[in-house]
Amino acid sequence: MKEVILVIICYLIGSIPFSFIFSRFLGGVDIRTKGSHNVGATNVLRSLGWQVALAALLGDVSKGLISAWLGYSQGGEILTALCCIAAVAGHCWPAFLRFRGGKGVATGAGVVLFLMPKAIIPLVLIFILIIIFTRYVSLGSISVAGLLPVTALITGKSWIIVTMSVIIAVIVIARHHGNITKLRNGTEAKITDRT
User: Which of 42, 63, 103, 116 has the highest CB neighbour count under 10 A?
Assistant: First the structure.
């Protein structure tokens, strides 16, 4: 029973809409009405600038980090994996915003930061390089999500953590389905575009 409650708590932690909160209180807008209407740091960046986006990003990363720590401190790898998946799911389908949230990238990064700290720098570098050369944040996000299970395997993680990585990768990539269509059509917004 304690484990179920903890997973629910991690889902609720993941549901905290930092992009919405910081955009409302620091930028004075409802981020759901701006740009792509997505409740995520990239949309905040395009709509309100890097200061508000950084606050949102750090908040979203902390959700994954805290949830991974809670699962790890209270149980074994299975509980840890479930807590991490719950946090990412909470970010994507938040209870506090009628289940319309972000795409799970930053919260997933928080999970990686805790469970695979040696992998976070290479993944972030790949993410940044893709953005530098293409200007597409979505392409960087999709690529790094796809590399996550491979990274878990390379770093010698258990099958539980590898499976968790696959599930998180599938969630993140699935949440980018609209971006994938736009990338194919050549209509995807670049990081330098302003709304």
Answer: 103
The structure's pTM equals 0.93
Tens of pLDDT, residue by residue over 89-101, are 999 999 999 999 9
Cα–Cα distances in angstroms (integers) from residue 93 to residues 99, 108, 122, 127, 174, in the given order: 4, 14, 28, 24, 13
- In angstroms, how far is CA 122 from the centroid of its own chain? 17
